[in-house]
Amino acid sequence: MMPEDMRRDLSITQQYVYLDNAATTPVPSPIIDEMIEYFEEYCANIERGAYSIAAKASQVCDDARKQIAGQLLHCDLDEFIFTRNQTQAVNFVAYSLEHPFLNRWSTGFKFAQPLVKWTPESKIVSTLIEHHSNYLPWLRLAKHVDAQFHSITPTEEGRLLPEMFTEVVDEHTKLVAFQHASNAMGTKHDVAAIIRAIKAANPQCLVFIDGAQGAGHMPVNVKTLGCDFYSFSGHKGPLGPPGTGGLYVRDELLRRMEPAEVGGGAIADVTANDYMLRSDHRARRWDPGTPNIIGLIGLGAAVKYLNRIGTQRIVEHEHKLTKHLLDGLREIPNLVIYGPKEDMTWKVGAVCFNIEGWASHDLSLALDSQWKILTRAGHHCCQPLMRLLNIWDTYAGNVRASFHYFNLIEEVDTLIEALKTLAG
């Protein structure tokens, strides 16, 4: 599949220069078709339905889970939890680290040993470049369990380096949470190297990776990375519908995690005084009640669509677009670029910038109203980073152009010429 082929599946590309893929990527029509087919052909609830279309709905959803776990994250099926987005995934883990696992055992209805034994010396580590969804839950958890909270400061170009973590991680560190790539600076991090450094400093330390800007934009193999948790949103790189996402949890941890919610579909047996959570599909303990069936079908179809393109092709195409944009922006006076500008090794398909004299929102609105170029402006849910960059008061954030496989060099040229005009 070529970028032009993908554009034929996205009617929005006929009207706009769509450069807001780090927030949401438009859903290609073949994925929409599979969701419509569910509504029109076999609209039924999943699991325990004895009739034919209920069985088909269950099978399609099971196949979707296998696609997402095996092809997008390269993890075991029962290590993948379907979520509504990346934010819910983070909060799921934060909840389980605060609340011990409750279940019926041979010795009675009681709590298991907690995943983490918290003390006032315990440390939780995050970074100042994180999206709020990978920062606030950990900050709150630290307060709830009376632990210390530490924030690592990235380099001027927005990079996180292994040595930054080894300076902080010690025997008291219980959790480190950081991103695969930045949505506000377009920086990619050497996740595997950082995790190795963390585990060398403290093998018992848990590592959570926010993959919202990773999965779908680049190959992800959670086993190779060596993380304990990896979360993503389905509606960004993976091309799925909004309201979908996922969470990888290492099997040993998942067995002892307390679900944030309980109810139908999560249990194997219930009495008047206790319950036993299901063990046949442990990840579904986190998906009680009727799930987002249409979203799960759509996300599974999206992973199949991604496979038609090839993740490495996406990486190479976004790299080409990003380099072309950076080369053009460097020629514009009074324009400031955030994130890596020369070394493309640590750059993803998102470029953030400001023009002196323009508030970020006003600049983004001008690009839309005059050229139908759609960008994202503001703090990108990264207010601590914006304050660190000293652009919160001046620009109220920055403007971000972010790519996917359907974007073209000609669209990048349109953006460059528009910014030249606006820069005066």
Q: How would you sum up this structure, described in words?
A:
The protein is globular. It is α/β, with parallel strands linked by helices and 424 residues long. It has helices spanning 3-8, 29-41, 52-73, 86-98, 136-145, 162-166, 191-201, 222-225, 251-254, 293-309, 311-329, 360-371, 383-388, 392-395, 409-423, and strands spanning 17-18, 80-83, 102-105, 108-111, 123-127, 148-152, 173-179, 206-210, 229-233, 245-249, 267-270, 275-277, 335-338, 350-355, 373-374, 376-378, 398-402. The protein folds into two domains: 3-19 and 311-423, Aspartate Aminotransferase, domain 1 (Alpha-Beta Complex); 41-307, Type I PLP-dependent aspartate aminotransferase-like (Major domain) (Aspartate Aminotransferase, domain 2). A seven-stranded mixed β-sheet has the order 2-10-9-8-7-5-6, sandwiched between helices. Strands 13-14-17-16 form a four-stranded antiparallel β-sheet, covered by helices on one side. A two-stranded parallel ribbon has the order 1-15.
The CATH architecture designation of the largest domain is: 3-Layer(aba) Sandwich
Distance between the termini: 39 Å
CATH topology of the largest domain: Aspartate Aminotransferase, domain 2
Task: Summarize the amount of helix as a percent range.
Answer: 25-40%
Q: Given the C-alpha coordinates, what overall shape results?
A: globular
CATH superfamily of the largest domain: Type I PLP-dependent aspartate aminotransferase-like (Major domain)
- The number of distinct structural domains comes to 2
Determine the mean pLDDT. Answer: 97
Structural class: alpha/beta
**DSSP helical segment count:** 15
Number of strands: 17
Question: Which sequence of strands runs across the widest sheet?
Answer: 2-10-9-8-7-5-6
Q: What percentage of amino acids are in beta strands?
A: 15-25%
Biggest sheet details? 7 strands, mixed
CATH class of the largest domain: Alpha Beta
